[in-house]
Amino acid sequence: MSLSGYTLPVFACASAMAALHWLRHRQPLTSVSVDLIEPPQIAEISIEQVAGLCNNTALAITRSEPGDNLDLTRNTPIWAMVQWRVGDGENVIIQGGEGVGKQINADNQPAIYAYAQKLLQDNLNRMLADDEKITVNIILPEGRSLAVRTSNSAFGVVEGLSLLGTSGISQPLSTPDQLGAFRRELQHKATRFQSLVFCIGENGLDLARQLGINPEQLVKTANWLGPLLVEADLLGVKEILLFGYHGKLMKLAGGIFHTHHHLADGRREILAAHCALAGLKSEDIGVVFHSPTAEDALKHLKYLDAATGSDWVNQVYGAMAEAIDSRSQEYIQNHSQRGSNATVCGSVLFDRHREIIIKSKIGCLLSKKLC
């Protein structure tokens, strides 16, 4: 049985709580109790070090422990520097220091997302009197070097890691145990809804919520799209909206239904093939094929559209979205006994700016029903 650990926001919050405790009591803590909020439970987090930097500033350090998850942040230090503050504004101001990524699509704001913000605000405000104010600076000393091994840049986050997530629990996304957990979540939601939304990761879940989709209809799949599509059909789900980053979902257009890059990639081949079918010139197909990332390939198509007045993005991605739908239907029907009653699939693809690139025809219909 795989063991769950905690996400980075939890350790950042624990460090901040320990630093604030030192400011008030001038005593180091060896652990703190963090209210995870989601799920509603308390986590005991070990504190590695606490130190006062001056009369009004303290620093505390924790180390990431993601459980059995194959997470590159395992054992990375998370610092929080807390400083008393006077003046107007919120009681708790949260800043991102070295190693915390910057959102290039949001005026370089620190990549500290909604759950992390709420976690820090709620836990720290409980420790403050009404008239007390602090500034919290989160620092990830190894964040910049670790970030180059992630897909953060594909979502417009540079120079560090994100404090991203919708829960305090960190769970392995690619182990058989985790597939079992995803299936149980799907089984529960299938008893309540006939239409569900499959999101591979946190970026999809976050954007879907922003667009007004009921969070209760969202199902996180990680890379297990194939098994979960079949499971949804067996459970009698009528409609599935595949909602994801284009660099992941385009794999389905090539019949790849386990999307982890260690098992299969094929993105450049799939994208180049659709460009050829759409009639793109051979030299531009070559640029697409040799692009280092799917985002770079998309950028080239956008450049051609802007320079020549063409419509390659819609043509290529429109065809690819329809292929995703049809290949998904074929996949389900190949593993299903329900025939014409099989689950219907539509797709929505977004880019690194979290902007929608294209919706398939069925994706458009399902989006209108779900939003």
UniProtKB/TrEMBL annotation:
Keyword set includes DNA damage: no
GO biological process: anaerobic cobalamin biosynthetic process; methylation
Source superkingdom: Bacteria
Family per similarity comment: Belongs to the CbiD family.
Reactions the enzyme catalyzes: Co-precorrin-5B + S-adenosyl-L-methionine = Co-precorrin-6A + S-adenosyl-L-homocysteine
Record keyword S-adenosyl-L-methionine present: yes
Coiled-coil zones: none
Keywords: Cobalamin biosynthesis, Methyltransferase, S-adenosyl-L-methionine, Transferase
Top enzyme category: transferase
InterPro entries reported in the protein's UniProt record: CbiD, CbiD_sf
GO MF annotations, alphabetized: methyltransferase activity
UniProt name for this protein: Cobalt-precorrin-5B C(1)-methyltransferase
Natural source organism: Umezakia ovalisporum FSS-62
Annotated metabolic or biological route of this protein: Cofactor biosynthesis; adenosylcobalamin biosynthesis; cob(II)yrinate a,c-diamide from sirohydrochlorin (anaerobic route): step 6/10
Enzyme Commission numbers on file: 2.1.1.195
